[in-house]
Design a protein that fits this description.
heterodimer; A: 276 residues; mainly beta; Porin; 1 helix; 5% helix; globular; disordered N terminus; B: 103 residues; alpha+beta; Alpha-Beta Plaits; four-stranded antiparallel beta sheet; 3 helices; 4 strands; elongated
Chain lengths: 276, 103
């Protein structure tokens, strides 16, 4: 009865938020990445809202991410974003650049109430968003992200570390956005050791670093692009059986951007996930 | 006559009780030690996989003790190799199991 109710509730939420957001894998950090992989033949459906503000530029994204477990350690999926953007009085909305991704957990050490693991990941973004919209909804390029993550998950404490590198393609005008390296260090704490059927809450604190290269236009460096930013990001994961709500806010603590650029004000995410 | 009737009733009850004891075993309870169980959300895959198996019921997960307990109805047997695969496919590690008859 409870299962049926939860399934109906879940499907309702999926339909209500049928344009969805870019969330991370299951029981992973909110902004960083962890090595978690959905179980074999399992389906993970994630929806949510992501918002960010950078000077006059405001971006809201709804997203849908569907992941399928190929084995107990290997998953792949798709990510379909829908963006609503505003910048200097202009506004646009529509589908953004869709992505396909895969993650393989190549190392796992299990002991009583503890799992240590590591995974590699690959994500490819296609030029599905409208690059001519103002502000642009897509990049007009095919981009890729490779990642390596480590996770320590115990009953009370979590620790994650990850590094991701994004290589951007060159558009028809010869513009190549700078590649970006991200590093993440995350700790999590479960204050109450609840049982399997009870609601479970984990609090997270992330340190996220981003190191961006300068963009190039026909091989020449473009001023006022690239630079480094560090964020501190409190967040949470709440779950009950096969449903979870995850959220967090990313606040800049260090900005060292090249030339004259707007600094990030904040980024925030809230997501809903189901394991089916 | 009354004595014989009472003895017959008690005898019938005794026979019925012993029959129930020998034929009433509804199956086997498996208590399985599993490593890597840290969060309830991640353990859902185990429940889902057992739910798909015919003759399996009463699935319980004890995260603190690293135990998964299921009841298998009579005639259904869970072998070590099958359990190893089930837990590996769920992202965990099978360690051992204990069985006991369900009365």
């Amino acid at each position: 009865m409870l299962y049926q109710y939860k399934t109906k509730f879940g499907l309702g939420l999926i339909l209500l938020s049928s344009f969805l957001l870019n969330t991370a894998f299951a029981h992973d950090p909110i902004f960083g990445q962890g090595p978690h992989v959905v179980f074999k033949n399992g389906v993970e459906v994630a929806t949510g809202l992501e918002t960010s503000k950078k000077g006059t530029e405001v971006e809201n994204k709804l997203g849908l991410e569907v992941t399928y477990g190929l084995t107990g350690d290997w998953a792949m999926g798709i990510d379909i974003p829908y963006a609503i953007k505003a910048d200097n009085g202009n506004a646009s909305s529509g589908y953004g650049d869709a992505g396909v991704f895969t993650k393989y957990r190549f190392w796992r050490r299990d002991s009583l109430g503890l799992q240590k693991s590591a995974a590699i990941s690959l994500k490819l973004f296609g030029p599905t968003g409208d690059k001519n919209a103002a502000p642009a909804l897509g990049t007009g390029t095919t981009d890729s992200v490779v990642g390596l993550s480590y996770g320590y998950e115990s009953r009370s404490w979590y620790r994650w570390a990850s590094v991701r590198y994004r290589q951007n393609g060159t558009n028809n005008a010869g513009l190549k956005r700078g590649s970006k390296t991200r590093v993440d260090f995350v700790v999590g704490m479960r204050p109450n050791l609840t049982s399997y059927t009870e609601p479970d809450m984990v609090y997270l604190l992330e340190l996220n670093g981003e190191f961006g290269d300068q963009a190039t236009l026909s091989g020449n460096r473009v001023a006022n692009t690239g630079g480094d930013e560090w964020f501190i990001s409190p967040g949470f994961m709440w779950s009950i059986t096969n449903f979870s709500i995850r959220g967090g806010i990313q606040l800049p603590i260090v900005s060292n951007l090249n030339g004259t650029q707007e600094k990030s004000d904040y980024r925030a995410k809230i997501g809903f996930e189901w394991h089916l | 006559m009354k004595k014989i009737l009472l003895m017959s009733i008690f005898g019938a009850i005794a026979i019925f009780s012993s029959m129930q004891a020998s034929f009433g075993a509804a199956g086997t309870n498996y208590t399985i030690r599993v490593d890597g169980l840290a969060c309830p959300y991640c353990a859902y895959g185990i429940e889902k996989k057992f739910k798909k198996m015919a003759g399996i019921s009463n699935i319980r997960v004890d995260l603190d003790k690293g135990l998964v307990s299921v009841d298998a109805k009579e005639g259904v047997q869970l072998k070590k190799a099958k359990l190893k695969k089930l837990f590996n496919d769920s992202g965990f590690t099978y360690r051992s199991m204990k069985t006991k008859p369900i009365k």
